[in-house]
Design goal:
Blueprint lengths: L10 H30 L9 H8 L11 H46 L3 H6 L2 H43 L1 H48 L1 H6 L3 H53 L7 H39 L21 E8 L10 E8 L4 E5 L6 H8 L7 E6 L2 E2 L5 H6 L1 E4 L10 H6 L7 H10 L3 H5 L18 H15 L3 E5 L7 H15 L3 E5 L11 E6 L2 E6 L1 H5 L5 H12 L1
Parallel strand pairs: 3-8, 3-9, 6-7, 7-8
Antiparallel strand pairs: 1-2, 1-4, 4-5, 9-10
Length: 590
């Protein structure tokens, strides 16, 4: 799996950790056998790992007889200290390796996601991408750090434990193998089905909660349509399903408890009975207690192994999903540092551009669009919704590439520029401004991360934003809330404009930046925009036509086709022109 390449820089530490897991498994068998010796008064020569325990015994006081409880307890104490030390070192080594590897993996996944083209984000849900970075990588981390370690440890315990059991008595081992594995498998299946029912119960509870949330959130609709009875019936059906699933789960839990009592303890009783018989006829030395304890350890490991295998299989699917993201083709941009803007004068030439979105190839959005913008010129785009205005802005930002036609900057194809440098020479002010959940200063400085406080204040002043910022007790350090919810629409727009002013772009793209504002806010924002557009090449996507009367040129789009161009007065003189119809329509609405 590709995820293991992130462990490569720490491979020696990782291998050492794996060796400690193997030693830990061996010590677990030895410690279990010592516990059995305490209970059964057995001799050390009969124990697994007897050479190790004899070596430990050599360092204990000589005045204690070899078979005494004191000597055995001393050996047990030493073994537990060794086991505890190895366990601590193993946990720290694994954590060190996995945490460093996951840090690199998270950074690479985020770098890949943030560098992907816009089409990638149209095909993926934000929640899914966030899950990949958070819960999925956390699952991978737990799998490598805990599940994999437990899987190896339990495998060692099973193998070594079976060898130890055979050395005690192959007849008793055969009987154990004929019963306990079957019981363990049935227990695992029982547990899996009960967990499935538990998850189903939780899902049904969640569904009923959705009904409650929907009905209470939309209580006005419920009341106005007199649908209280309908909602009660709907919720009643949901909780009835919860009851049915819960009762079914209770039946299976009861059956599972019955199985444990009858079969598991019955099998252990039969095993001990047969062991006592073998011991009575002289075919089994005094190791019965150790045998039973090790059998329980092996059985527990078999059951745990099945669970670990299920977790590993699930994690493999998660790892493949994360690796699929890393295998994507990101945009060729510089992600190591803030890019220097391209040295542009601001001339733009759009020639015979045809475009459809990759996910909607049957819908042609632009059909042979052509027009020019001269350096410092203000050009407005007007047209009905869906005519392709915002799509042109996305093409200028190189979010997409037209299927036909060219877009040139200063006479050079857009593809000849470094993508990040080209975008750094532009600023985009959208209709719906979404701010980051930090301070006002942070959001303005997003246009120029290394800006000084004086530069930020100057940008806010030009954007007509400084007055309302200073009215807040915290000033520039005021938190804007999630997506800027603490600010009004006009305030958010002026923060976005201040960000664009601070960027000092050669090319400015304004996408209906005042369409959703009240008259007072529109006036303040429009003044800020007029200041921002001075000396810059500006493409203004207009919704309120009153805001573009002074544009150097207006381009009229209809169904993805340029149907007319000219100044405000020129277009008004054309009786059957779309622009004149739009102006008349806007007057009628006022």
């Amino acid at each position: 799996m590709g995820v293991f390449r992130y462990l490569a820089p720490y491979k020696y530490l990782f291998v050492f950790g794996l060796l400690l897991i193997v030693v830990s498994g061996l010590l677990m068998i030895v410690i279990t056998a010592i516990l059995g010796q305490l209970a059964g008064a057995e001799t050390m020569a009969n124990m697994p790992g007897s050479s190790m325990t004899t070596w430990v015994a050599a360092y204990l006081p000589d005045d204690l007889p070899m078979q005494t409880t004191g000597k055995i307890l001393g050996i047990l104490a030493v073994m537990l200290i060794i086991q505890g030390f190895f366990s601590f070192v193993r946990v720290y080594i694994f954590s060190y390796v996995i945490e460093n590897a996951m840090e690199t993996l998270r950074r690479d996944v985020y770098r890949t996601i943030i560098s992907m083209p816009m089409q990638f984000f149209h095909e993926r849900r934000v929640g899914d991408l966030s899950s990949r970075l958070s819960s999925d990588i956390t699952t991978i981390q737990e799998t490598l750090n805990i599940t994999l370690a437990e899987f190896i440890r339990q495998t060692v315990i099973i193998i070594v434990g079976l060898v130890a059991l055979v050395s005690f008595s192959y007849k008793l081992t055969l009987m154990m193998l004929a019963t306990l594995p079957v019981i363990v498998i049935i227990m695992v299946l029982f547990g899996r089905y009960i967990r499935k029912l538990g998850k189903l119960t939780q899902d049904k509870v969640a569904e009923s909660s959705v009904i409650v949330n929907e009905s209470l959130t939309g209580i006005v609709n419920v009341k106005s349509f007199a649908n209280e009875a309908f909602e009660i019936i709907r919720y009643g059906a949901g909780i009835r399903t919860i009851k049915q699933v819960a009762l079914k789960s209770a039946i299976w839990r009861g059956m599972f408890g019955t199985f444990i009592i009858i079969f598991l303890f019955g099998a252990l009783g039969a095993l001990m009975g047969y062991g006592a018989y073998l011991r009575s006829i002289g075919e089994l030395p005094e190791v019965l207690v150790s045998f039973v304890l090790i059998t329980g350890l092996v059985a527990g490991s078999i059951g745990g192994l099945a669970a670990q295998m299920g977790t590993i299989q699930r994690s493999i699917g998660i790892i493949e999903g994360v690796m699929d993201i890393l295998a994507g083709q990101p945009e060729k941009i510089n992600t190591s540092e803030h890019a220097a803007p391209a040295d542009l004068k601001g001339a733009i030439s759009i020639r015979d551009v045809h475009f459809h979105y990759p996910s909607r190839s049957d819908v042609q959005v632009l059909k042979g669009v052509s027009f020019d913008l001269q350096p410092g010129q203000q050009v407005a785009l007007v047209g009905a919704s869906g005519s392709g205005k915002s799509t042109l802005a996305a093409l200028l930002l190189q979010f997409y590439t037209p299927q036909q036609g060219t877009i040139d900057f200063d006479g050079k194809p857009a593809q000849s520029f470094e993508l990040d440098a080209l975008r750094s020479a532009m600023a985009y002010v959208p209709q719906e401004v979404i701010l980051f959940g930090g301070t006002i200063r942070d959001n303005i400085a997003y246009g120029k991360p290394d800006a000084t406080d004086s530069e930020i204040e100057a940008a806010a002043q030009k954007a007509n934003a400084l007055a309302f910022i200073q009215s807040f007790p915290e000033g520039m350090q005021t938190l804007v809330g999630d997506r800027g919810i603490q600010l009004s629409g006009g305030q958010r727009q002026r923060i976005a404009i201040a960000r664009a002013v601070l960027r000092n772009p050669r090319i400015l793209l304004l996408d209906e930046a005042t369409s959703s504002l009240d008259n007072e806010s529109e006036k303040l924002v429009q003044e800020a925009l007029d200041e921002l557009m001075k000396g810059r090449t500006s493409l203004v996507i207009a919704h309120r036509l009153s805001t573009i009367r002074n544009a150097d040129r207006i381009v009229v789009l209809e169904n993805g086709i340029v149907t007319d161009t000219g100044t405000h007065n020129e277009l008004l003189e054309r009786e059957n022109g779309l622009y004149r119809k739009l102006i008349e329509l806007s007057r009628n609405e006022q």
